[in-house]
Amino acid sequence: MTDRPMDKSLELDANGAPTEAQFQKLVEVISRSQLNYRELIDSLDHAVFTVSLGGEIRVANRRLSEILGVSFQDLIGHRLDEFVAEPSLAEAGSYLDGFLERGHWAGRIAVRLKSETQKRFYDCWLQALREEDQAPSVSGWVRDVTSQHESEIRFTELFESLREGIFFTTPEGKLLDANPALLRMLGYDDKEELKKLNFRELYADPSQRDTLVRQVVEHGAVQDADVVYRRKDGTQLHCLASGFGVRDTFGRTIRMQGTLVDITERIEIEARLHREQEFVRRLVASFPDVIAVMDLDGRLTFVSPRIEDVLGHSASDLIGKVLWAQIHRDDAAELTSAFRKLANGELAHAQLEYRTKHADGTWRMLRASASPLFDASGKINGVVASARDITETRAAEKQQSQKEKLAAMGEMMAGVAHELNNPLTAILGISDLMRERAADDATRRQVEIVLKQARRAAGIVQNLLAFSRPSALASKKLRPEQVIKQVIDQQQPSLRQKNVAIQLEAREDLPAVDADPRLLQQVFVNLILNAEQAISSRCDHGTLRITVEAADEKIAFVFADDGAGISPENLAKIFDPFFTTKRPGGGTGLGLTICQAIVKEHGGTMEVQSTPEAGAEFRVILPAAKGDAATPADAPKAPASAPRLASALQGRSVYVVDDEESIREIVQEGLSARGMKVEGASSSEEALPHLAAHTYDFVLCDFNLPGLNGEQFFERMQASASGGAAPKFVFMSGALLDPSTMAAFGEKGAAVLQKPFHMAGLAALLTELLEAQPSKET
């Protein structure tokens, strides 16, 4: 103890002792000091006490009486075990020796009072007191920390159970603590093993931690930073890191604590989702159909890029627009009805075809397949559809249907061609004879009319046959300028008569074309005749400009007239079969159709442009032939003169085999008039024995004989022919034979004469056969 100076006011008696009054005053001072000390002790939040080793309470403040739930008078002198159920004095006594040896103890104890059922937790400090004349006692204090203890337990449970990793580190990187989740995330089993590492070493890129520490120091915290750690096994861990710094009184950051959320799986899912989305995007973009999504009001919310190829609009231009804004009015009602039923759930699927407008103003036919679109709750929130452009398909189907009809018609025409051509042959033959024998001009003019109409009827039949049964190509390499010049030379007389001038522009160094000269000339003749008629319908004179051009390994024949032109509504139909703008009797409507078919067979295309009242332009585009060598086009042969025919056929004999008696009679009368001996039969069976016993210069045979047909009859004759000279054989055919068939007959020594024919043509053929090789074709 430190000696204190005696109070100067205290006076002593003669013996050096205080007087009674003075002693009383001293007692009062001490009492007041004790009272003040007592009040101070009682005001403490801690319970202060002194207890004997036997558990008797000697000194206590009011806080202890409040904790034990008794009055102060009932506390002093009583034993602790009267109030405390756990721990018992026996349990506490087991630690007594160690406590007395150390002299003090501090810690947290769990205590259950007899007046309570639940334990409470107290922070406690105890000190052993030793006095010479008294037994040792224990002095100390306790503080109720039950709420804090429960909070700490809850925090510990949370710390241990959280799936997010929690860490406490120094700014330098020393790991102070980590929860089990962080250990699992980083692949460690032992926290102490992790604590041995510098936290900076766990970063895949240590500079990332330097950046985070700098942010925490400067700003106090960091939120959802994307950080990559390295696991124990070397794999990477992607996390979102959040944390804050703890500062001392001087504002220095002394500790950092925070959480780590493992987003490795999320990143992998996002990457996989991105790949799937990219796959779907690419799939939709490359899908041949247009994919579209509409909301319940029919407004487009998504359109695949394919829309630009189909309708010429970009996808972004259509977003937000109503589906049926560009739909053909005749199809809009059906489309909107189907959409409403899908949106209302009345239909699970719908298919329909409709017309919609292209960006260039044309109408395109689309075939759509649509279904309702559902949200996550199963509620319809739109309609998804795919649409395919079937404009070309529909056109092809229409053409195929037309082709099938024409094929059926061709079969019918092939069946009746013989029946049509035979009477036409008779009409032409009789007309020829009547014209030759006409006594006056009036009769001759009438016969000319009959001949003209018969030839027209024959041309119609031939066009129908040619369209329904295109002939095989007999292609040659031709000089394009020569082909067109020969056609112009043939048509010049007619063009001059109609006051139509032709202007030709064609170089002589143009590449050759690989074409059938006969068919190619047919195309050019038809285009020239059409131009002539277009000019004549408008005025009494005009000009046809023909240009032959070469570009991109193609040859273009351009026919441009200044006639009446073609109206826009007719322009798209001029190649359709049987379509014609000519007056009744002016044409069959097959000319341009046949021309287009011939050009397509040559691998080319036909194009047309026209302005009404300003003329039309037709372009025939053919591929240029490979190589340079070209064969000149066959020039038309000049018809044999009548005197030459008469002298060549005079005295010759001919045998006619035809089941049509009128044909036999016409041929017999026409050839007899030219000095020939003519006999005949109605069937092959009748003709064969007669021909076996007689010799003739010519045999004329109908190709479609009943029974033993013309081809079989010809083969029998060839088989029975001995070393003698065989008659020159001519087939008379009402069907349209292709060039390859005619060439095969020519090689066997037979010519072909197409019905209907007139006597002058037959006579010319017979004269040609006498002057040429037997294999000559006509």
Termini separation comes to: 156 Å
Q: Strand sequence of the main sheet, in spatial order?
A: 2-1-6-5-4-3
Radius of gyration: 60 Å
- The proportion of residues in beta strands is 25-35%
Query: Tell me about the biggest sheet?
Result: 6 strands, antiparallel
Helix tally equals 24
Summarize the amount of helix as a percent range.
40-55%
Low-confidence stretches: 1-10, 773-778
- How many beta-strand runs? 28
Structural class: alpha+beta
Structural summary, described in words:
It is a single chain. Helix content is 42%, strand content 25%. It is of the alpha+beta class and 778 residues long. A hairpin with a 5-residue loop joins strand 9 (221-230) and strand 10.
Features of the shown structure:
six-stranded antiparallel β-sheet; 24 helices; alpha+beta; 778 residues; five-stranded antiparallel β-sheet; 42% helix
Which helices and strands occur, and which strands form pairs?
Elements: H1 20-43, E1 47-52, E2 57-60, H2 62-68, E3 84-86, H3 89-93, H4 96-102, E4 104-113, E5 120-131, E6 134-144, H5 146-161, E7 165-169, E8 175-178, H6 180-186, H7 191-195, H8 206-219, E9 221-230, E10 236-247, E11 253-262, H9 264-286, E12 290-294, E13 300-303, H10 306-311, H11 315-318, H12 329-343, E14 350-357, E15 363-374, E16 380-389, H13 391-437, H14 441-468, E17 476-478, H15 480-497, E18 500-506, E19 513-515, H16 517-536, E20 542-551, E21 554-561, H17 568-571, H18 591-601, E22 605-610, E23 616-623, H19 642-649, E24 653-657, H20 661-672, E25 677-681, H21 684-693, E26 698-702, H22 710-720, E27 728-733, H23 739-748, E28 750-754, H24 759-771
Parallel strand pairs: 18-20, 24-25, 24-26, 26-27, 27-28
Antiparallel strand pairs: 1-2, 1-6, 3-4, 4-5, 5-6, 7-8, 7-11, 9-10, 10-11, 12-13, 12-16, 14-15, 15-16, 17-19, 20-21, 21-23, 22-23
Helix pairs in contact: 13-14, 13-20, 15-16, 16-18, 19-24, 21-22
